[in-house]
Amino acid sequence: MDDAIKKEAARLQRELTEHSHRYHVLDDPVISDYEYDMMLKRLVEIERAFPEVSSPTSPTQRIGAPPLSAFEQADHSIPMLSLDNAFNDQDILEFHNRIVKRLNREDILYIAEPKLDGVAVELAYENGILVQATTRGDGITGEVITQNVRTIRSIPLKLQEKKRKCPPRIEVRGEVIIRRSAFDQLNKRRLENQESVFANPRNAAAGSLRQLDSKITTTRPLDFFVYGTGLMQGISFHHQSQLLAALKDFGFPVNPHIKAGISLDQVLTFYRELQVLREGLAYEIDGMVMKVDDISLQQQLGEKIKSPRWAMAYKFPAMQKTTTIKDIIVQVGRTGTLTPVALLESISVGGVMVSRATLHNEDEIKRKDIRIGDTALVMRAGDVIPKVVKIIKSARTGTEIPFEMPDHCPVCHSRIEKFRLDKTHINKCVNSACQAQLKERVRHFVSKKAFDIDGLGKKIVYQLVDEGMIRSFADVFSLDMEKLVTLDRMADKSVGNLIQSIEQSKAISLRRFVYALGIDHTGERAAKLISERFLTLKDIMGASEKDFECIHGIGPETAAAVCKFFSNQENMAIIDAITLSGVIITNEPPSSPDDPGKTLFYNKRMVLTGTLQTLTRNDAKRQLEKLGAVVTAGISSKTDFLVAGENPGSKLEKARKLGVEIIDEARFTLLLKEYS
Ligand code: IVH
After folding, report:
1. 313 touches ligand 1 (CB under 6 Å)
2. How confident is the model at residue 382, as a pLDDT?
3. Same-domain check for residues 462 and 520
4. What's the domain range around 366?
């Protein structure tokens, strides 16, 4: 083998390792996925031809190895303990008091971390090289899952020696997780392939680590955060926080939401902050872990049989609970779609009372075999409507009643149209004058992102429609004192505020107006794209389906729906009535070039791809940076815009997948002109 090949392999191994770390740990890629894939392909070719240049730390090891017949077992050098759980502040106070008493000092400082809801693993590195990965098992003995762990891109196969030399041996411990979005995608894929779905990300992570064939594991979106160590030789630390910093320098992902060197009070405050943060996090956490930060104090405190005396998990209230389904009703949405909803025996989930859960559609009810009277595991996550995770079949008594979708609208009794959309069966009330549809359309029309009329909540809209005071959108603008005071629970003051809010809403941007109309398949993003392409409502009304399809980011379904909406005479009459009632549609003013804070690109992460006709990529980059943009090479979930020229390649695909906004060259040059 010639020296040049050897050198090339070594360079590829080094560079690919670096790029993979940038992508998976730092979330700051500097090359495109395509370039990465091409380099990896080349390395695979070389290693296949000359196996002697491969090594256990080569990036090629991440794509899986020959399957095993069984997992070997291995003892942990130091047992992997578990944590005691606290469920309220009092438990934490008692934990603190025990420590104060044992150490005979008051000034205890802690480190507090999110409790990641995944699977614990231990990774052993010898002279910087990953030699073994094990599951926790019973805490004493675990299963050897090295091949599977090598496929996890955020786990280094080789430690970085940027700040310090690698110790002869270090065992690190952490949690393997799957991010929510990746979990949803994984389940979607499994559903399409008629495979069983995972109940939650933790189960999916555990199942993926337990594969004998690591070629399967490599297709699973596993991720990792480090939180501690086992045996360490030739290296030691004074504080837990210092240890985490060192692990970060070695190349491990450390969770960013960690507070170190804090007092008991600060720990309790952090617990509350974390509960708020939890809802927006990309992965699941089920509590907070607090640890005494000073490692010599940890050693003085020691441990009990199963758990250390220096750490405690403060669990969050459960986000999943079981309760009974009292009934299943059907709701009619703004476009007429029927959605089955479970009425539940009220229960507190994660601190919020829950009495209904969406069942999405007929297919979901069939798939989960949901019946009236069933005991169900119900989940609440973030702001989304609670849903049924699964039915506890073992709790059935035989009296449960299967549910059938009605064949007439439960509100207006019109015929139901049944059709399929992306493999899902949809039931739709065909009567666009259905009161239930009107109520939901009006609610959407006045909602925050549309006309934003304060004080027109669900109850009032429903009353106004029931009383016949609102028969179409335009009626909203003729609501007056006289009409409103007749409503239940409307005091003079709130009527006054409401009328003022209605007046203020009459000046509206084109973007909000288009969104407010509630056209099928036309959400906020589509409304924005359409209003940016066409500057007036008149232009939109005059556009053809093709014109809409030409807008980057607008799909054929939206184009057809928008076109259909504006060619319907009734809709035109509604729009006329709205404008006649004093509504003025403006386009949002172009930003002032003197104030970069006002440009669309300020502080935005942008990626350029493909060939631009009117300027070079470098020029485009320079101009964008002048406008305050941060131009990066690779697309990630943090990217705000992708500028796509001709022959855009894989970045465009990826941007679409991630929902990154795409700007074509025509719009890009227009925007540059506008801001410069
Ligand atoms: S420290 C001796 N820190 O919780 C204590 N554990 O119930 C070692 N976990 O098996 C654990 N996030 O899988 C620690 N930031 C964190 C954690 C964490 C999740 C898990 C871990 C452990 C379990 C204990």
Report:
1. yes
2. 60
3. no
4. 319-421
